[in-house]
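Exam revision sheet. Question 4 asks you to relate a sequence to its structure. Input first:
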Amino acid sequence: MATRVSYPVETKMKAIEMRLAGVPVKEIMEQLHIRNKTQVKTWMKWYRDGQLNRLEQPVGKQYAYGKGPEYASELEQLKVENRFLKQQLDVLKKYKKMKRRCRQGS
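Answer key, structure tokens:
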């Protein structure tokens, strides 16, 4: 039976960022040491569907009905949500910068 690998949220967001920039999946796998190409595709699907809470779930843990994990307090939940929204903005900003660079190079 294969061993399951848990990737940190930062690695997942970096893979998404690289994929949005047009980096091939094989290159992402090599650079970030990801074992399975379908893993990157799954993360991209979650990102596109707005299911960022799933990037933080432990291996093998599937939250029922897409509700996400239970938090000790509302403040903790808001902090997690805020962090994901900031990461999303960072990815979009980097994508826009790369898009501008491509236009200038043409």
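Marking note for examiners. The mean pLDDT is 80.
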